Amino acid sequence: MARRAVPRLCRPGRLGLHRPLAGCAEPVRLVERRGIVDGVQTRNLLAPDLGRVLILFTPDADLEFFEIWRGEGLTHDLAAAAFC
């Protein structure tokens, strides 16, 4: 039996998920990429179905963005404001 190809939401090094966001009628497909360079944290959130991108930078290496999949915290709140 042939294996069925499973479409990938994102490439390695990125987190891909469908998340309910406060204010959105339906879950939003998101691709998240994280990074830190010289103490500057970055978060790139793409909502490909909406054609929108949210890019966050902070010089505070200790700032807690929290996990968007938990449905709370800074990243969730900013994504909800940008995508809903």
Features:
1 helix; 12% helix; 4-stranded antiparallel beta sheet; mainly beta; disordered N terminus; 84 residues
Describe the structure.
This protein has 84 residues and is mainly β. It has one domain. The protein contains one helix and four strands; from the N terminus they run ββββα. The chain has a four-stranded antiparallel beta sheet, with helices on one face. The longest helix has 10 residues, at 74-83. The chain is globular. 14% of the residues are buried. Mean pLDDT is 82; it is low at 1-10.
Brief characterization of the structure:
It contains 1 helix and 4 strands; from the N terminus they run ββββα. With 84 residues, it is mainly β.
How helical, in percent, are the residues? 10-25%
Mean pLDDT: 82
Strand residues, percent = 35-45%
Counted up, domains total 1
Span between N and C termini? 43 Å
Largest sheet, if any? 4 strands, antiparallel
Poorly predicted sequence stretches spanning 5 or more consecutive residues: 1-10
Strand order of the largest sheet: 1-2-3-4
Number of helices: 1
* Strand segment count: 4
Order of helices and strands: EEEEH
The backbone outline, from C-alpha atoms, is globular
Instruction: Give the C-alpha Rg.
Output: 14 Å
- Indicate the structural class: mainly beta
How is the secondary structure organized here?
Elements: E1 15-19, E2 28-37, E3 40-47, E4 52-58, H1 74-83
Antiparallel strand pairs: 1-2, 2-3, 3-4
